[in-house]
User: Which sequence fits this backbone?
């Protein structure tokens, strides 16, 4: 039995890695400028240590691949992995497969922060928008968590506090927009999500924060499995449910804040990817968390490839694509929630 379980686990990880690799290749090839798939793969492999392959890409195609497409693909993978991992972590904390970062003030805080930066600075300092979104996201989660703790123990109180804070921050954002209607288009463009301005610099900026969040969440996979059976059982095993929730919520907030700071608000990734992973690999968070990271990265890269090709030469906001995919999936999750055990 153990050997069979181990084989299945290895197989699922192999599927996840293959899915991510295929998504990265599709993302690198997708775009207005056509490139040969084999030549693209050779050019990418040639950048690996100890690998030497000759590519047939022209200098212009090389520039398009490594200066435009690859930064976008890599940033999409980081953002998708972070959002999926954050969603899976929140679902483990709240023992609910329908929870993601948007329900705990992260998205609303980021939206308010970005809106305030755009309205106050008028777009004159583009770098201020991701910084404001990052700070706003962390602030939203912090306020929601403190309000939930003050309201009493239990995950329900924390979740209700998150909903209340999200509604309040969204109302403030709407008020700010009404006071500055000339910035509505720029704000909504950010709120719908996009990776069109991706650069290597953005990836390097968020990578340290994302890496810290990933490590912390993955290290708590076993603890989330124990929390799923109840707080009393966790305490009987010497664990501290409050501390575990605080650590996971903080790490998930950091991951979500890093993602939305550079991509805007992208919905449904943190719900549908972890749910699909549970269907594939089971309910143990020791598997759900790392697999959500891999599948989420690949999913968002493919969604972004679709966003920039389906109406080419124009481009859809990636948030629209994930919503079109995620809405039917969310309805299906609602119908099957009774059979899901997180």
Assistant:
């Amino acid at each position: 039995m153990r050997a069979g379980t181990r084989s299945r686990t290895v197989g699922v990880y192999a599927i996840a890695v293959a899915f991510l690799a295929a998504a990265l290749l599709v993302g690198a090839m997708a775009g207005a400028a056509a490139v040969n798939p084999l030549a693209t793969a050779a050019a990418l492999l040639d950048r690996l240590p100890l690998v030497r392959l000759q590519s047939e890409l022209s200098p212009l195609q090389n520039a398009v691949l490594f200066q435009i497409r690859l930064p976008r693909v890599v940033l999409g993978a980081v953002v998708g992995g972070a959002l999926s991992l954050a969603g899976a972590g929140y679902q483990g904390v709240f023992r609910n497969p329908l929870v993601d970062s948007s329900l705990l003030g992260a998205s609303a805080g980021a939206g308010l922060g970005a809106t305030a930066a755009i309205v106050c600075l008028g777009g004159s300092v583009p770098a201020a928008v991701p910084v404001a979104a990052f700070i706003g996201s962390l602030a939203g989660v912090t306020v929601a968590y403190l309000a939930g703790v003050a309201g009493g123990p239990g995950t329900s109180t924390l979740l209700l506090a998150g909903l209340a804070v999200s509604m309040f921050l969204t109302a403030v954002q709407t008020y700010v927009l009404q006071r500055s209607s000339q910035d509505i288009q720029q704000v909504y463009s950010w709120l719908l999500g996009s990776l069109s301005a991706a650069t290597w610099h953005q990836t390097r900026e968020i990578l340290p924060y994302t890496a810290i969040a990933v490590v912390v969440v993955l290290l708590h996979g076993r603890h989330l499995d124990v929390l799923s059976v109840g707080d009393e059982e966790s305490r009987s095993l010497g664990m501290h449910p409050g501390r575990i929730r605080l650590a996971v919520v903080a790490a998930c907030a950091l991951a979500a804040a890093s993602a939305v700071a550079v991509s805007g608000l992208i919905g449904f990734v943190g719900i549908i990817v972890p749910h699909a992973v549970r269907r594939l690999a089971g309910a143990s968070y020791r598997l759900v968390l790392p697999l959500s990271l891999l599948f989420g990265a690949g999913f968002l890269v493919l969604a972004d490839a679709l966003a920039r090709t389906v109406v080419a030469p124009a481009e859809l906001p990636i948030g629209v694509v994930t919503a079109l995919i995620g809405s039917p999936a969310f309805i299906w999750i609602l119908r099957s929630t009774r059979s899901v055990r997180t």
